[in-house]
Amino acid sequence: MSTRILLTGGAGFIGSNFVRFVLRERPDCSIINLDSLTYSGNPESLSDLDGEPRYRFVHGNILDLELTTELIKECDVVVHMAAESHVDRSIIDARPFIESNVLGTQTLLDALRRADPDNTKRFVHVSTDEVFGDLPLDQLEVKFTEATPFAPSSPYSASKAGSDMIVRAYCHTFGINACTTNCSNNFGPYQFPEKVIPLFVTNLIEGKKVPLYGDGKNVRDWLHVEDHCEALLAVLEKGAAGETYCIGGNNERSNLELTHSILAAMGKDESSIEYVTDRLGHDRRYAIDATKIKRDLGWEPTRSAWPGALENTIKWYVENETWWHRVKSGEYLSYYEKQYGGR
Ligand code: NAD
Ligand code: TYD
Question: Ligand 2: which of 90, 195, 336 to mutate, most ligand atoms within 8 Å of CB?
């Protein structure tokens, strides 16, 4: 029997990759993509699917209870990834983060209960490792697991932790059939050029410098977006109700190391780095122990190995200038930079 997926936030970075991945890997699946098209939602990221009978785009907000109830009734499962996603923006204005990430998730869960009172429909809540706060740089053996307590640092991560808690509460109180995933930093095609990799790559193509925050020693665990999509599909199909799964690339890099790799791949040198004022409350290190998802669902990353995966991503931005040019104006400065000025 074919599976009908309601995907929220499918016009964003991970969502557009997920649509393409699922339609390719599961010929029996169809997708309805509900997206409100905020600044980071870009229907052009899915323009190659025009006319695809297994794909439908619905322009709407997850805060709309009536719309989401009707759409869930049409589908067998829900994959929820609509969110405000950028830490720097949340530092400037937290309100949209609370609205979309916290209230939006709660609204969607109420729609799920209305559309599916018997709790038959699987709901996958896509979240981040940032809910766990950060780790020290000098204890590399310590990583986040499903048992790590929440300690979010930024308004973004606090809003995601809030959404995770609401999903847990609805599982406990109402018995909804939900799983939550907490994933590390993704990279790959179609990422909005405010996030560090596409920002740095496109800056260098434009002959600009790359703004490295603070001392550049902060560490992130980088996962290719298609590895994330494959993990989400595994959780959707095989995850146990009420469970949480940590997803990571086992690929820790300091921002300085990342920057040097990008510079080398693009034939640039140190002089392209501009050390700028650190992000407020900047988390030092994220790292995931993905033992549980490997043990229980048989997933592990296969597409994230460096330098190849990073170089292929850089190549994508080099070859798809029209895509990112439309979302990044000629005089583009990061949103954060525009607000704080003079960095
Ligand atoms: P993104 O900003 O590229 O995309 C978010 C999408 O959600 C956009 O298309 C936007 O229009 C849509 N959206 C936002 N608010 C909405 C609303 N109220 N109603 C309907 N649509 C709305 O983000 P992304 O990087 O693709 O992240 C997707 C999800 O994955 C988020 O929940 C994020 O927290 C999570 N996540 C991201 C990463 C990462 O490295 N990018 C890592 C772990 C988890
Ligand atoms: P980002 O891509 O914003 O992801 P997140 O904050 O969710 O991890 O940032 C990744 C890392 O890169 C983070 O440590 C902050 C750093 N960074 C810079 O040094 N300069 C920049 O211009 C940006 C956007 C991020």
Answer: 195
Question: Are the CB atoms for 161 and 131 separated by under 8 Å?
Answer: yes
CATH number at residue 165: 3.40.50.720
Q: What is the pTM of this model?
A: 0.96
The structure tokens 């939900």 sit at: 178
Greater pLDDT, 333 or 125: 125
Contacts of 245 (CB under 8 A, 6+ apart): 146, 179, 180, 181, 182, 231, 235, 239, 292, 293, 296, 297
Q: Is 90 close to ligand 1, i.e. is its CB under 6 Å away?
A: no
Of 6, 7, 14, best ligand 1 pocket probe by most atoms within 8 Å of the beta carbon: 14
* pLDDT at res. 2: 86
Distance of CA 121 to the CA centre of its chain: 23
Contact 188, 20 (CB under 8 A): no
Give dist(CA 48, CA 38) in Å, integer.
20
Q: Which domain holds residue 12?
A: 3-340
Average pLDDT of every residue of the chain:
94
Domain tally for the chain?
A: 1
